[in-house]
Target: Aminotransferase class V-fold PLP-dependent enzyme
Amino acid sequence: MTNANNSAMPTPVDVARARSETPGCAEVVHLNNAGAALTPAPVLDAVIDHLRLEARLGGYEAAAAAAPKVNAVYESIARLIGCRPHEVAVVENATRAWDMAFYAMRFGPGDRILTSRAEYASNVIAFLQVARRTGAHIEVVDDDEHGQLSVEDLQRRLDDDVKLVAVTHVPTQSGLVNPAIEIGRLTRAAGVPFLLDACQSVGQLPVNVRDIGCDMLSATGRKFLRGPRGTGFLYVSDRLVETMEPPFLDLHAATWTDAQTYDIRPDARRFENWETNYAAKIGLGVAVGYALDWGIEAIEERVTALATRLRHQLAQLPGVTVQDRGRRLCGIVTFTVDGVPAADVHRRLTAAGINTSVSAITSARYDLGARNLPAVLRASVHYYNTDEEIDTLCATLNSRRT
Ligand SMILES: *Cc1c(COP(=O)(O)O)cnc(C)c1O
Model:
């Protein structure tokens, strides 16, 4: 049933079943999977069931009763990304996951942090804060002629002053897939820690931390994994974890051992905190298992086919420009309409029952700024979308001249 492991020909997704297990498919044309995908019924049921259990038994008692399901969350995530369960921390979202890793690293004057043009605004804001505090320098690695991170430029910049390479795998504002495996090869050879923001890639593409060679990886639940909102996770490798002091500690991340001392947990859960939304956490585990049951290769194959069709159709529409760059493209499709602000296009599509979103320059200044784009419209497909939905989007775009 699971095709997740390198089978040459993944069993294609049964789209009719995927849609019948997704209540939202009957309501909307959902092309905002990079914002938050529609949750499948098993995830919804798992969340609601746990909330009901809490109401009946009490929250602590429900958590104890659900302990096997909670442990299964770590096992599922470990299977998904190719690590071990104790290398995973489950937290509120991808930003918190990324921040816990980033702010656990130590930088000083003259240290260099290398990043990508694709980088997400929240990551860059953290870079700027830390640069201001410590005197570390932020350097943006050039793109190559395809619009992806230039591996040659990265190689040229890697030296002993570089204390971190932090790269976004798939950005929020484009269909680009950055060459994570090539980046990991270089960082490993240079002995520099590699933090991968895999928020938009996990769930739509195979992402394996051993293949990539990243030391840290952050992801969210609600995007391509189709989990509940308010969930995310952090992977930190065994190699690094004990050298990293979390920016916050509590009685879950550490133990108060003596009046004056505490011990930090040895595993990645040092980046968690004690109180958590158990229903959402269990739902995340179910979402990961659900994705693995479809098979990540099968998901990627269908997502890529749908996105290719969409880009092709958009390119035929007068006044529409597809804005995706990169050698390898994914399920995020971005475009602009001549003379019409992205927010206006978005509003019209929403009124027609088609969910998309807008990526504004404030989300990605290094990238959209360099391309002189104040905003792009983003239509992000998932495996439960259909050719007909793509046709509907394009027909709606074509039926107006605002
Ligand atoms: C959405 C996104 C994030 C932030 O994820 P949250 O779960 O909202 O914290 C980080 N990086 C990228 C590339 C994103 O698209």
User: Anything to note?
Assistant: DSSP finds 15 helices and 15 strands in the chain.
